[in-house]
Amino acid sequence: MWKRSDNIGVCRSIMPSFCSLLIGVTFILHASGIPWTEEKLQHSAATLTNDEISAALSHTDLGQMWERDLKPLLVVRYPSSAGSQAVQEHINTTLSSLEAGWEVTMDRFESDTPYGRLPFTNLIATLNPAAKRRLVLACHYDSKYYPPQWHGKEFLGATDSAVPCAMLLELARALDEELKAQKSSNNNLTLQLIFFDGEEALFQWTSTDSLYGSRHLAEKMEATPHPEGATDTNQLHGIDLFVLLDLIGAPTPLFGNKFQDTKPWLTRLQNIEKRLHSMNQLVEHPNSVQYFWPGVPAGHVFDDHIPFLNRGVRILHLIPASFPSVWHRFEDDEENLDRPTIGNLSKILLIFVLEYLNARPTVPTNPQNAP
Ligand SMILES: *[C@@H]1O[C@H](CO)[C@@H](O)[C@H](O)[C@H]1NC(C)=O
Ligand SMILES: *[C@@H]1O[C@H](CO)[C@@H](O)[C@H](O)[C@H]1NC(C)=O
Ligand SMILES: CC(=O)N[C@H]1CO[C@H](CO)[C@@H](O)[C@@H]1O
Ligand SMILES: [Zn+2]
């Protein structure tokens, strides 16, 4: 598209009536279409019918998620550990084996830490790399490092953040069919999953001893032209919304509002919670709203969204207003997880993603209504 200044330059040398026509045409072009980087501000999500919701949720299985996605993550997995390597392979293998065809890349780098220079690896899975716009779901897969003087005790970080990462893996598997169909029908908008390494401070939280993976990736994405070959847009412009999940898995989480510009999306999560409640899809869920509170302001927390927020990315930070009581304690393990909360939050997230991507599941036809 022309820039306004080009027209004015041309107009100096040609007839005035043609000039006003040219400027008029340019104005119409600008007014009729918005730059792709602003499409996210006007994005409208689908609202699934009850039948579509039931069809989509019929693919979820908390028992399977527990065994296949979560248990392999519940190992000591601080940066550079053998457990970290195993978890990277687990994430890659899980996503690479799906029908939808995810592109999984590893962002490997080294950073100075209080324990010397260490290797880190972020994993980025993109459903359709050709799509300009991405809904991003993110978690950190590293566990907090505890030095050996703790007499062999192991910190497994079940809520911090094995469960959020397992939720992303389960979502990709449960929605495999729907995501495959969405990928072939919509080339403009896709889903990206980011698994950060090095969120935790290795020794003590400072601006340099924390957020190793997200600091590195935000900088790298800002320096990477997007779409390929672009001169004035980068991968961060491609992020519609950056949804960060953290500290999930303890009972009774409350998610308040942290960012005015993304409040409508928190409100949508609350609406989905209400809809699933009315469909009896949620267990141990006595009130129509338990989790999502867009009207309740919540304080900011330093987390992997910060390097993205500082670069203008729109954030939805799904971290409970009160941290789990087991936070950064050895009790943050499988035994202290609350299964109904995890199952029900997974369902809400899954519907949110489908609706955001305008992906409608196929509803099985009722044989009684067949001709
Ligand atoms: C991820 O897994 C796929 C399939 O198993 C494999 O081909 C690929 O090399 C793996 N990627 C990395 C970076 O390890
Ligand atoms: C994708 O974007 C193009 C150009 O903006 C538009 O013509 C097309 O309808 C969009 N496709 C979908 C599925 O939204
Ligand atoms: C624990 C869990 O997965 N949550 C529940 C959410 O709601 C459905 C339907 O009521 C239950 O079957 C799940 O067990
Ligand atoms: Zn932590």
TrEMBL record:
Under the GO molecular function aspect, what terms does this record hold?
A: glutaminyl-peptide cyclotransferase activity; zinc ion binding
Q: Which Pfam families match?
A: Peptidase_M28
| Peptidase M28 domain segment(s) | 122-350
Question: Where does this protein reside within or beyond the cell?
Answer: Secreted
InterPro entries under this entry? Answer: M28_QC, Peptidase_M28, QC/QCL
Q: Which GO terms describe its cellular component?
A: extracellular region
Task: Note whether Transferase occurs among the keywords.
Answer: yes
Catalytic activity reported: N-terminal L-glutaminyl-[peptide] = N-terminal 5-oxo-L-prolyl-[peptide] + NH4(+)
Per UniProt, which keywords does this protein have? Acyltransferase, Disulfide bond, Glycoprotein, Metal-binding, Secreted, Signal, Transferase, Zinc
* Listed Gene3D superfamilies: Zn peptidases (3.40.630.10)
> For this protein, what is the EC number?
2.3.2.5
- Where does the source fall among the domains of life? Eukaryota
> Is the Secreted keyword given for this protein?
yes
Similarity annotation: Belongs to the glutaminyl-peptide cyclotransferase family.
Name this protein carries in UniProt: Glutaminyl-peptide cyclotransferase
* Classification lineage: Eukaryota, Metazoa, Chordata, Craniata, Vertebrata
